[in-house]
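Q: Please design a sequence for this.
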């Protein structure tokens, strides 16, 4: 079924995903995650109420109870799942996808992610089967539960004194707007009303057109930093005082100043396979070990828990925290970055200076190739460079990553879209452009 992805269930509402499919997901979910009561939250998308009704009818027809927390960020569902000891939860959201999409993010006890390899594959087979859905005699009940106050109290622990900062915030008309005002206070806010039509830009903070408004606001108001949230507030990207987009992996390095430098937490830091070498180099001052792993919450959250790492992050703008049940929270990342910046500003440092000091590398950013012969193209790129020189490090668990003394590259197939994704980094711009040109030429032969 088209909506079942590597990390979650997501697709165009009315075709890939509809009320019948949502009902069947609810009905068969207990065969994958059996518990008496399921926690369910939803975002502000126009189809979310219909999806909620269908999903919860399926659950209650199986005799299961539902605790609804209403409009919710995705991280709030993760936190509540673990905090209140639910056996399973569902967040209704399509995250950063366009307005006509919707989806479901499913978690097990302790907010453990359920991906395709850990349950969605079996759920898909049941939903697609001809097995009848027959209501049980005793239907389950739906009740409302308000967790907002507890969640805000938790989040506020991490916010320092921000009174010396001039902050810009773009909520993308998404779920961050229900908490961000009360969390950080005075700031220049835009797109901070819930609107499932996303009238100003799509809720994807990695898209250049979605960054235009916040960049302009930072420059106009002479802000120290800009925050740009995605639709369900599990991802965030940052804009520096010069109006420049900050590569999200570099924020992983900066967060170390809080968790390791200030809080003296012990444990490995997790990054994904696309992350800058600058992270390890920056965290060397704390003698911290950085572990590299697969892309996506279904892998990262489980790996961070397995390692008992103190925190981690991804190039996509997800940041995971041991203090957050090994799950991701954009609000928590925002609070800590602002806290650190407020302290650095007292020392005369700007966000642009901080980031420039973290990374000495030129970076390509993620380049996408839409091709069918992904594996062949990946293999050709790998073979080309390995025949020239053996890399210092070679990783092959999420595409390929080849590390050399002055540069590295990663090429991997997207788990959610029909693309081959390429990214490289080098100590000189000349070498960077040479790498990009070589890879483009190789991949073009497989188009």
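A: Design:
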């Amino acid at each position: 079924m088209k909506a079942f992805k590597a990390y979650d269930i997501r697709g165009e509402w009315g075709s890939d995903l509809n009320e019948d499919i949502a009902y069947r997901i609810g009905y068969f979910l207990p065969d994958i995650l059996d518990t008496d009561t399921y926690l369910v939250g939803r975002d502000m998308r126009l189809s979310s109420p219909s999806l909620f009704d269908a999903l919860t009818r399926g659950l209650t027809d199986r005799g299961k109870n539902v605790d609804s927390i209403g409009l919710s960020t995705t991280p709030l569902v993760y936190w509540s799942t673990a905090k209140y000891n639910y056996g399973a939860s569902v967040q209704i959201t399509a995250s950063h996808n366009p307005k006509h999409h919707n989806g479901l993010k499913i978690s097990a006890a302790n907010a453990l992610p359920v991906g395709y390899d850990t349950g969605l594959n079996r759920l898909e087979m049941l939903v697609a089967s001809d097995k009848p859905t027959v209501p049980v005699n005793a239907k389950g009940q739906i009740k409302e539960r308000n967790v907002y106050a507890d969640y805000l109290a938790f989040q506020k622990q991490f916010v320092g004194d921000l009174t010396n900062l001039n902050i810009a915030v773009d909520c993308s008309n998404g779920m961050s707007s229900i908490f961000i005002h009360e969390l950080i206070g005075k700031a220049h806010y835009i797109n901070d009303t819930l609107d499932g039509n996303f009238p100003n830009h799509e809720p994807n903070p990695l898209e250049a057109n979605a960054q235009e408004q916040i960049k302009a606001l930072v420059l106009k108001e002479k802000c120290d930093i800009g925050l740009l949230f995605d639709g369900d507030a599990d991802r965030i990207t940052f804009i520096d005082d010069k109006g420049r987009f900050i590569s999200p992996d570099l924020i992983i390095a900066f967060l170390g100043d809080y968790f390791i430098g200030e809080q003296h937490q012990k444990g490995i830091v997790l990054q994904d396979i696309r992350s800058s070498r600058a992270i390890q180099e920056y965290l060397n001052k704390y003698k911290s070990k950085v572990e590299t792993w697969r892309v996506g919450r279904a892998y990262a959250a489980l790996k961070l828990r397995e390692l008992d790492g103190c925190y981690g992050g991804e190039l996509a703008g997800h940041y995971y925290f041991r203090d957050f049940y090994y799950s991701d929270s954009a609000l928590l990342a925002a609070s800590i970055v602002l806290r650190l910046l407020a302290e650095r500003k007292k020392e005369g440092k700007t966000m642009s200076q901080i980031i420039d000091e973290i990374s000495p590398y030129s970076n390509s950013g993620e380049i996408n190739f839409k091709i069918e012969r992904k594996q062949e193209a990946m293999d050709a790129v790998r073979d080309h460079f390995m025949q020239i020189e053996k890399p210092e490090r070679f990783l092959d668990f999420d595409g390929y990553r080849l590390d050399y003394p002055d540069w590295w590259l990663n090429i991997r197939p997207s788990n959610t879209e029909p693309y081959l994704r390429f990214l490289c980094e080098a100590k000189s711009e000349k070498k960077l452009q040479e790498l990009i040109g070589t890879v483009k030429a190789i991949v073009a032969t497989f188009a």
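Q: Thanks. Anything notable?
A: The longest strand covers residues 101-108. The chain is about 35% helix and 20% strand.
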